[in-house]
Write the structure tokens for this entry.
Amino acid sequence: MPDENSPANDPPLDAYSRVVTAVAERLTSSVVHIELQDGNRRRVGSGSAFLLSSDGLAVTSAHVVDRARSGIAGLADGREFDFEVRGRDPLSDLAVLRVSARDLPAVELGDADQLRVGQLVVAVGSPLGFAGTVTAGVVSALGRSLPTRQGDTVRLVENVIQTDAALHPGNSGGALADSEGRVVGVNTAVVGAPIGQGLGLAVPINATTRLIIATLISDGRIRRAFLGIAGGMRPLPPRMVEALGRNQGVEVVDVVPGSPAAKAGLHAEDIVVAVDGEPIHTAGDLQASMTGGRIDTDVVLEIIRSGQLEEVTAVPSELN
């Protein structure tokens, strides 16, 4: 007699359901519910995280961790383990945890730079404390910017993924996966009433964020260079478009007094078009160029000033 519980007797699934269930089965065991604790072991918050390696490294959102240093991670199978915060970077909204366990089911990372608008994505997390919750939707938009803050410093996380997969409080830090079950984003925010419905945001997993995660694992923090300008995208004059082979740069709107930019002689209306020979098209490009390796070193800025191409040398300090 056939086994009534055999998969062969399961009702057939449509193609969409097959994809979502396959991703859910692959990811649910790798996404954990986290309870944050203060120094007195009192609960101070909760959220989601996903396991990056079998030896207990996990990724979540920096705003979920906030200033907590430890907590408890709950797996889908009911096991619970202590964890410590290995490192956090509020300006990318990423944090790394070290879970006190081994032989854990880790996720496979994908590349958000390969996503396309309309592509199916699946979110797994612990909204409102309901661990192992799965929602699905599509990539609604790409290339969004998410402002983050650390003290007086405001930074834009670039190329944020917008999705209509339902996200709720507690989803932050959880996984956003493609149809192959590869994690392409870290769920970070949901836009709700009265602003809008069905708007979720995720920090992308790409070459930039992989480097941030790797640095948090090794060093526990991210060092960034500080130039000291505020600026925005500016179309280049036709003559410069022809000379440089690109059509935009970053116009300096303001210079922080006493900053490396001020000491280098930069001023409003200068247009930055390259840093050490690397083309600069947007404020995001300029921001991304200010890596830790440029702290206290000579940096050559190629600028357009009064219609002429010039070079100035700045020595960025460390962003505090």
